[in-house]
Write a structure and sequence with these properties.
Elements (H helix, E strand, L loop, with lengths): L2 H27 L18 H28 L4 H22 L5
Length: about 110
Amino acid sequence: MGPANLVLLVMTSWCGILFLLVGYVVKQNQSLGTISFPNLRIEKIRDKVGFSRFVSNHLMLAGVVALFTSLIIGLLPQFTLLAILLFIIAILLIVTELAINKKRYL
């Protein structure tokens, strides 16, 4: 494994751990102040508990995807480019689904 793969491994692992921790904190504390969307006003949210659960589940899913990507980079360094491309696509899909379905709670 080269130095570039090692850097990618550390970056995706750190990203995954960070997403998992933020998702866990949002789910446990139901702290909507840490969530920032464009044009989102916390007082307009009808179901604050459901919305915090919805956002935290998506954050933790992104964290699992990032950790899975780092696992692929660590175990199969020849597929690093493919793993990063799939990581980017998966994160974009998660964020798009989050942005589309957030209207259920507004």
